[in-house]
Amino acid sequence: MVYRTYNLKIIIIGDPGVGKTSLVKKFVSRQFSRDYKASIGTNLFIKKIVSDSDEEISLNIWDIAGQERWVKMRHLYYSGSDGALIVGDLTRKNTFYQITKFWIPDLKKNCSGIPIILLANKNDLKSDISKTEIEEISNKINANSILYTSAKNGEHVEESFKLISELSLKFSH
After folding, report:
1. pTM (2 decimals)?
2. Closest to 171 (Cα-Cα) out of 113, 103, 87
3. CATH topology of domain 5-172
4. What are phi and psi of 39, to 5 degrees?
5. What phi-psi label fits residue 45: left (phi over 0), alpha (psi between -120 and 50 degrees) or beta?
6. What is each CA distance from 142 to 5, 66, 167, in whole angstroms?
7. Domain residue limits, the chain
8. Can you tell me the distance from the alpha carbon of 142 to that of 137, in angstroms, rounded to the nearest whole number?
9. Which pLDDT band holds residue 1 (cuts at 50, 70, 90)?
10. pLDDT attached to residue 36
11. pLDDT in tens, 143-166
């Protein structure tokens, strides 16, 4: 039995090519595509889930383009966010350093006080960064959690979106 329905805006951010769109598509439609197409501005996905406490949550997932040319528009996409998934690519160590150098300052400037989950994506491939380094980055950005994901095989994808939903509900209600 569903008690209430909540609408949550979740943003997913990170460098180009880290797998943001692939993660969202795997969560929403259970599909994985090998084709890489850069997002233009933002893609919006909606999926309804039921929380552990039997509340219906309508997730509005904003897949925000990582390319630099969108930097002037990005703050508009952040507005009203209830939670953030920040994605790094395990095969490219630099994408994790960009999280501390660019993505977190950009996020905090535009919306602070929301839960953040760090996603270490492409866990099905050989990693270029140690778990210790990822934990240090997570601590530095005050992430609420780290999850090692794979959009290809679905590892921790569902869990990522469910966890950010639960945390967002706690933070906002």
Report:
1. 0.88
2. 113
3. Rossmann fold (3.40.50)
4. -70, 145
5. beta
6. 29, 21, 14
7. 5-172
8. 8
9. low
10. 46
11. 999 999 999 999 999 999 999 999
Q: Which amino acid is at 96?
A: F
Model confidence pLDDT, tens digit, residues 59-113: 999 887 754 544 555 567 788 999 999 999 999 999 999 999 999 998 998 888 8
Longest Cα separation, the chain: 46
If you count them, how many residues does the chain have? 173
Q: Which of 36, 45, 58, 51 is nearest to 2 (CA)?
A: 51
* Residues 18 and 87 sit within 8 Å (Cβ to Cβ): yes
Buried/exposed code over 58-85 (b: 16+ C-beta within 10 A; e: otherwise): ebbbbbbbbeeebeeebeebbeebbbbb
Tell me the three-class secondary structure of 85-119, residue by residue.
Answer: EEEEECCCCHHHHHHHHHHHHHHHHHCCCCCEEEE
Neighbours of 106 (CB within 10 A): 15
Between residues 169 and 55, the one the model is more confident about: 169
